[in-house]
Write a structure and sequence with these properties.
about 350 residues; alpha/beta
Length: about 350
């Protein structure tokens, strides 16, 4: 795992007043889930199912597909590493910038990796794995559903891994498992962690052709998903709602924040279709800005310099409530006006 991956709030103890560094929605109402888990707390007294088939059946019912085409994993990260193992010693195409874990997993399984930024594609083997983060992290851009569908169906020799972890964070139409499950060259990744804002429970799943899932199960070690996470998944599918209560209003606030940041001299802000956005600062580094914001204002942002292809001027922020967003904008304005540093 790359150092600096994800939300690093743990580094700052009680300093953080506003956390813009994590893409996961932070204001979800988990009261009903907590009550349910406390009522079922005794599940920790026994081993969970070796493979969480009860939860897989509920997921299949939710999507209207066969349960043989669903595989629950210990977060989407485990799914990424399992797929990389399945295609060990293969060639992988990973367009950049994107989630670092794809490249980490592929390197650990001896893949020949192309970042699709040179002529090396012509030198790669014909059998390839394409890794597509959609919505993409850290940029927030979304590929059209029709485009992804067309590419996958027109390229049966290639394998496509489409990570839709942030599918609940965009209004754009994405791949539907019931429409794609007959394709043996496609894996679609889904995240309970993001959809229901429970990243600490580590719960994700793969939808794919049943024969492909069968191959993956041969690499799966028993009891990978803990009993409490399984119970949480069952409850959320039966009674839960996505973490964001009003996605349209939340994305409207995202656009408001983006426009305010764009008005700050020396800050470039990229378009986004999600709740997070990629930014670039001139005449300073993201690390310097991050240090200033946390020490002077208690605001945490994501330094994106460890994303392949991005310089040390890039950072990412995720929309909070309006008053918090206003504080972020004012703090960055102060930094740019004074180049305050720490």
């Amino acid at each position: 795992m790359i150092d600096g991956h994800g939300d690093d709030i743990y580094r700052y103890e009680d300093m953080v007043k506003l956390n813009f560094s994590s893409n996961v929605y932070q204001y979800a109402d988990h009261s009903a889930l907590k009550e349910y888990l406390m009522e079922h707390f005794d599940v920790i007294n026994n081993y969970p199912e070796p493979q969480p088939r009860r939860l897989e059946k509920l997921i299949a019912l939710h999507h209207g597909i066969s349960s043989e085409g669903v595989m629950v994993t210990n977060g989407v990260t485990e799914a990424i590493y399992l797929i990389a193992r399945l295609f060990h010693n293969s060639a992988s195409i990973i367009p950049q910038p994107t989630f670092n874990e794809y490249a980490d997993a592929c390197r650990s399984c001896h893949h020949l990796i192309s970042y699709e930024n040179s002529d090396d594609l012509t030198e790669l083997p014909k059998d390839r794995v394409y890794w597509i983060c959609n919505p993409n992290n850290p940029s927030g851009n979304v590929l059209m559903k029709g485009f992804v569908d067309y590419v996958v169906r027109r390229s049966p020799r290639y394998t496509f891994v489409v990570d839709q972890s942030y599918e609940a964070y965009t209004k754009e139409k994405l791949l539907e498992p019931r429409e794609m499950q007959e394709l043996p060259n496609l894996f679609v990744l889904h995240s309970f962690s993001k959809t229901y804002a429970i990243p600490g429970l580590r719960l994700g799943y793969i939808t794919a052709h049943p024969n492909t899932i069968r191959l993956l199960r041969g690499l799966y070690h028993p009891w990978a998903v803990n009993a409490m996470a399984i119970e949480a998944g069952i409850f959320l599918l039966q009674h839960g709602r996505p973490a964001i209560p009003d996605l349209e209003a939340y994305l409207d606030e995202t656009e408001r924040l983006r426009k305010m940041l764009r008005q700050i001299e020396g800050i470039r802000v990229f378009e986004t279709k999600t709740n997070y956005m990629l930014c670039e600062i001139d005449k300073s580094t993201a690390a310097e800005l991050k240090a200033y914001l946390i020490h002077q204002h208690g605001i945490l942002i994501r330094d994106c310099s460890n994303f392949y292809g991005l310089s040390n001027h890039f950072f990412r922020v995720t929309t909070q409530f309006p008053d918090g967003n206003d504080k972020l904008v004012e703090a960055i304005k102060m930094y740019q006006e004074n180049k305050g540093g720490v």
